[in-house]
Design a protein that fits this description.
Shape: globular
Strand order of the largest sheet: 6-7-8-3-9-10
Order of helices and strands: EEEHEEHEHHHHEHEHEEH
Low-confidence stretches: none
Largest sheet: 6 strands, mixed
Helix content: 25-40%
Number of strands: 10
Mean pLDDT: 92
Number of domains: 1
Distance between the termini: 33 Å
Radius of gyration: 17 Å
CATH topology: Rossmann fold
Structural class: alpha/beta
Strand content: 25-35%
Length: 231
């Protein structure tokens, strides 16, 4: 579903991601693991078009998205949940969801039933302002906002940051159920190995902007991956 070829990304003269190549198969879940400052967010932002790549190519379902702005990548089937959630605090829950839907959709837009079924708390709080939700509820809202675009590939950046353990478990359960039902592929950057273990089919480790380790769930050595995550 996703193919990243030799992606090189940086800020000004500083290079952060060094010729990274990565694949995510149709319906597959891949965890991008690494400590803070290793290039996870920079890589994801380049994949979704929020940062320009200095070199390389990004393809979705065989179609090159290289050079396209982020809104065109979303229309091609890519959705992104950024680090820190970035919901609109002054909009209601329902408005946060509606604003993400295609502006060319019919004027009588409705939040899809599967979103409310997956996140019943959002249906209950649909008239509450996003800024009045708890951190975990805001993260659920950010995920739901991405899902209303009906993506073929869902990308999440550090979704467990600042979230209590019980909500993290709920998040993994909901994402697993949605991936089975909707058939989308998943790419998630993460430092919490337990959450990644609940989700991923394959694990990729990034260190100082380079991919240094890769394992499937079947052969995973958690201790080896954990060693990359410790300072």
């Amino acid at each position: 579903m996703l193919e990243v070829k030799q992606l090189q990304v940086g800020y000004g003269a500083s290079e952060v991601v060094h010729r990274v190549s990565l694949q995510v198969g149709a319906g597959e879940a891949v965890a991008l693991m690494g400590r803070n400052g290793m290039g996870k967010t920079t890589l994801l932002k380049a994949i979704v078009g929020m940062l320009p790549a200095k070199h390389g190519e990004v393809l979705l379902a065989g179609r090159s998205l290289t050079g396209l702005p982020s809104h065109q990548r979303v229309r091609s089937g890519m959705a992104f949940v950024p680090q820190g959630r970035m919901i609109f605090p002054q909009l209601t829950v329902e408005e946060n969801l509606l604003v993400a839907m295609d502006r060319n959709a019919p004027r009588t837009r409705l939040v899809p039933d599967y979103v409310h079924a997956a996140f019943p708390v959002l249906a209950e709080m649909r008239h509450r302002k996003g800024g009045n939700l708890s951190g975990g509820q805001q993260q659920m809202l950010a995920i739901a906002r991405a899902l209303v675009t009906n993506p073929r590939l869902l990308i999440l950046d550090e979704p467990t940051e600042g979230i209590q353990p019980s909500i993290i478990k709920d998040m993994a359960r909901i994402l697993n159920a949605l991936r089975r039902e909707r058939g989308f592929a998943l790419l998630v950057s993460e430092q919490v190995l337990s959450f990644a273990l609940d989700l991923a089919d394959r694990f990729v480790v990034i260190d100082r902007g380079r991919l240094v380790h890769e394992e499937s769930r079947a052969t995973l050595d958690p201790a080896k991956v954990s060693a990359f995550l410790t300072v």
